[in-house]
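Rotation project, supervised by the postdoc (A.L.). Task for the rotation student: set up a whole-complex structure prediction and record inputs and outputs verbatim in this book. Inputs entered:
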Amino acid sequence: MIAETGLAALWLATALAALQLGLACGLGGEEGRRVGTIRAVALSQALLTLFAFGALVMVFLDSDMSVKLVAANSHSEKPWIYKFAGAWGNHEGSMLLWVTVLAVAGAVVALFERRLDERTLGATLGAQAALGLGFFAFLLFASNPFERLDPAPLDGRGLNPLLQDPGLAFHPPTLYLGYVGLSVAFSLAVGGLIRGDVSPAIARAMRPWVLAAWIFLTLGITAGSYWAYYELGWGGWWFWDPVENASLMPWLAATALLHSVNVLAARGGLRAWTMMLALVAFSMSMVGTFLVRSGILTSVHAFAVDPTRGTFILALLALYIGGALTLFAFRIAHVKEGAPFEIVSREGALVANNLLLSVILGTVFVGTLYPLIAEALFGEKLSVGPPYFDSVAGPLALILAALMMIGPQLRWRRDKTAILPRWAPGILVAIAVLVGSFILNPHIGLLPRLGLAIGAGLIPASLQPLLGRSLRRTPLAVWGMALAHLGVAVAILGMASDSAFTREKLAAVRRGEIVEVGPWFVRLQEVMPVAGPNWTAIEAELRASTGSGLTVLKPQSRFFPSPPTTTNEAAIDTRWNGQLYAVLGEPDGQGRWQVRLWWKPFVTLIWLGGILIGLGGVLALVGRLLRERRQRIRGEEAFA
Amino acid sequence: MNRWLRFLPLLVLAAFVAAVIWRLDRPAEEQIPSQLVGQPVPSFALAPAMPGKAGLLSAELAKGRPRMINVFASWCVPCITEAPLLMELKRQGVAIDAIAVRDRPEDVAAFLARHGDPFLAIGSDPESRVQLALGSSGVPESFIVDGHGIIRYQHMGPIEPGDLPEILREWEAAK
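Outputs recorded:
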């Protein structure tokens, strides 16, 4: 019964999305075009979609095995939190989550957006409804989450054990919030292009959405990277896997957009470019979702492949992105370019930032799709791996980081003052670290060495915009920028330290034997079987010491019977100066066990940096919203 | 902005959609074809992996009749899921030999007692030498060798129910 109610709510919401699109196109006459009318439709659509999503969560919590999706993806013995997360840990549920977020975002725009004129807002909501309509249709016709199974099986078929992890339960929704937040930027750009009016007001309306989406993407990617690090047991933190790239590409576009939207909001410049980025950012989200969900590219993240669904999403993607890009091509000539600026200026630096980010985006895009292109054109099977991405994206990212040392120190429009003294702190620190690293350790690779230098130089440089200001009166957005840039510095230091100083040891050891890795002596104490709620495992007890302290690590090799899968649970001991990472391998049949150990100095800085970047985004978002609210109140007082 | 530059993103999109349609139309083969298919079996002589069974000699493989070689180990969990399917292949007339990798005689015997014994000869490969020479990176893995000692087919990972028709087809072809 719950399932049928959910399905009915979904159908009603679809009808309302169609109505919203019709009204925005003027089918309801002038009265229908009024924002008040559209607002009511958008709100009801969001509530109905939320209701449908709630119904899906309910059937998962109830373990209602007569619903096909529950039977295929859940199990009555599963801990309740994974039943809950199981609602979106599968294709249909995740698509329902996607449209839910899309509809709620549309309703929030309809209810709270005050910066735009009525016509542009109407066009934006029309675009948002058009997006929603396609994905509703996809759910109803190709991925119905509420389909029944008759007769109902006695129990379900479990959940992918790799996904049975608290972090991962909330990882996909975080990324989805990011992807869908970008849909609002997309709709705003479409609305602005339709009206031929790309004003700073649009940029101001777009900014909080881009910021929020970017925060979610940043945190989602950071969490995903840590998950892969401890769950996949390879000791690496980024694998350039197609699915990882699918989340990185929208992030790169959103990062560029985040910076260019500020130029448009503050200076009225970069109009065409900002609109293009807004279209590209959400397009990358759709391309990413498509690549992940269609199984087009082989990846460690295996998802069920269904050609019908792949074709359906591809058609939607071609329609939306193609439509928006065509609109852009024909309408952008009607958009007036904004205020001019000189190359040596804040705008100039931001343009350089945008170009670099776009080139990195292009590199990742081409690299991700190259195996497909090569096979289609030359019939050649190949895979593009870390060597390509590292050697192309690495140097570009370092140049970008170097630019971050000098860009925020520049003034808007043009900078004729003495700039070298302002650049000095960052550059001097970077040079000092570079020279110091040559003296202390001549055997580091070039990229990690430059990473250490630029990361270190970026620390003073990112804090510099706070200097010479009264800290209490410094806008939160500036604090946010400083914190986010500091986060980039911290993350770069972590990456460079990981690749320069990591020590690795693979050994076959008997009980009682000792392995040395970095400063650690690790002794295999015991190997024993253990059992969990729905798995059995072999667990090793490793005693690690550095002379000063002793710590015990318990890596496991887990076996899940339903479906039969083996996973490696790495054991990680986190110290202030790094992590000791242990993986238990296979026995050799003669009393020895394969043990793989890594000592990774300061590797945690990578994720700490990611969190700082996200927090910087939160400060900027809160700062912008509070300031706009204050200004609006002040404006209303002025009218009174 | 240049007039034509405005259409560039559309062009990129069209190329992407074309490539993807091509792929949807022709799904990728799941596994990279083995470099060893068509090559003779590397020469080896393995001692019996357990009492009561013959060891495995590469010379024995080129005696006019095809053989399937299953690389397995008693400590390998996916090998358990594969065991009933090997029994089914044996029932259908496939002659299967095995290489037990890094294993102990009593463990091999216990494994076969619990999960069924489809094997004629079982060679013991205590240091994975033959496994590596065969280009096999993990267990389980299966090969079909024809009567002239030429490898005709390689299957990586556990055999699943859906794989049986293909394996039987390859077996017939190797005869």
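Student's summary: The mean pLDDT of chain A is 86.
Supervisor addendum: The interface with chain B takes residues 272, 276, 279-280, 283, 287, 290, 294, 296, 298, 305, 307, 310-311, 314, 317-318, 321-322, 325-326, 328-329, 332, 369, 372-373, 375-376, 381, 559, 564, 566, 586-590 of chain A (CB under 8 Å).
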